[in-house]
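Predict structure. Chain length: 441.
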Amino acid sequence: MKKFNVLVVGGGSTWTPGLLKGICARQKTFPINRLVMFDVNENRQKTIGEFAKILFQEEYPEIKFDYTVDKEKAFAEDIDFVFVQMRTGGYTMREKDEKIPLSLGLIGQETCGPGGFAYGMRSISDMVQLVKDVREKNKNAWILNYTNPAAIVADALQRIFPEDNKILNICDQPENLLRSYGRLLDRDPREFDPIYFGLNHFGWFTHLYDQQGNDLLPELREMILEGGFRPVDYEQRDKSWLETYAMVEQMVRDFPDYLPNTYLQYYLYPDKVLNKLNPSYTRANEVMDGREKRVFEECNRIISVGTAKDSHVVHNDAHGEFILIVAESIAFNKGDNFVVILKNDGIIENLPHDAMVEVAASLTANGPRPYAVGTIPTFYKGLIEGQYAYERLTAEAYIEGSYQKALQALTLNRTVVSALKAREILDALIEANKEYWPELK
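Prediction complete.
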C-alpha cells in the first residue's frame, strides 16, 4: 500500500493532538511515510511537536516526523496532502473579533457576523500565500483546508485560483452533527447517507438515509423535539457549545422541514443569542481558559513523563479524524460520501452557479462528484442568497480593497442589518486589523 507525505499547516493548534492521534489510529488505512508540521508560532508548535515525537515513538515508530517554522523545509516537491488549520492573528485577534461587535451591541462570534467578517479578511491573505507557497514547489498536492471562516475563504480562493482543482475546503461541523445524530439514534454515523444543502455554517440536512434506504430524519426530528440535542462528545464540551447545540431544538420547532446547522442560531435568533453573550467573557476566553489550557498542560505533562499512554485529554476527535477519512477517500479513490464545500455549477438549481455551496459529494482520486440537490424552497433560498451576497462582497472587498463593498457586506449580514451599525463596526474593525487587512478605500 502506498505511503503518503503530509504537511500540516497550523501545527501549534489545540486541534493538532487529536489529528495526530487520528493518524496513529488510521495508520493501516492511510499510511504516512513522512509528516511535517509547520507553524509561524514556534513556541506553540514546539510543545505539540515534542508531544508528537513521544506519541509516534509509542504508536507509529516507522513514521518520519519533523516540525519547523522554515517554509523551505516545510514546502517540498513530494508532498501529497497539505492539511491546513490556520488561525491568522491567533486568540488575541479572535478575542477582538468577539468583543468589538459586542461593545457596539452586535453579536460577537468568531465565524459569524462582524467577527467572521474580520476573521475572513485576515484568513484570505494567509490562505492565498499558502496556496502560492505550495504550488511553487508542487502542482499536484491536495490542499485540504479547515481554515475558517470556510465560506469566505472558499469564495476568495475560487476567485483567485479558478483553475486549481486540488483545493478542497471542508468543515467538521456537518460531521460533528452526523456523529451526534449517530449517538442519539445509537447507529454508526459512517453508515448514514445524508442529503444536505446550504453554505458553510449555513445549511440544513433534508434527509438522513440508512443502509436500507429508510429516512431517519423524521424519527430524529421527534427525538430532538422531545429530548433536546447535545453534541456527540458533550462530556468534553465547554458550556457555550452545549448551549449552541441546545438551540437546535428551538430551530426544529420553528422550522421543522429540515435539521439545521447549529450556527444558524446566530442568523435566525440574533436578539436572543445576543442577550446570552457576555461582552467581557466570550467563547475566546472560554477556549483559552478551557481547551487551550487543558491541551497544552497535557502535552507538557506527557513531555515531562516521556510517555503518551493513559492520556485522556488528547483524544481522537471528529476534527482530527474527518480530514483523514477525506484524504483516505481521495488517495485510494474510494468515493466515500462527505459534506464538503464546492462551486455550485447547478448542484442547487435555483442558486447562483458560482456560489460556494456545502453539499454531499463522493470524493474520488479525480476530485469531488457532488449529488444534485435540485430546487430549494423560497424561505431557504432567500436566507442563502442574502448570506451568499455577504460572503461574495466580503471576498471582493478584500480583493479590490473596497471600503464600499465591505460596508455593503456587513449591511447585508443578518446579525447587523443597520447600515449605520455596519459603518460603525467596520470602522472599529479596520482600526483593530491594520496589521492584517489590505487598506480599504
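Summary: The mean pLDDT is 96.
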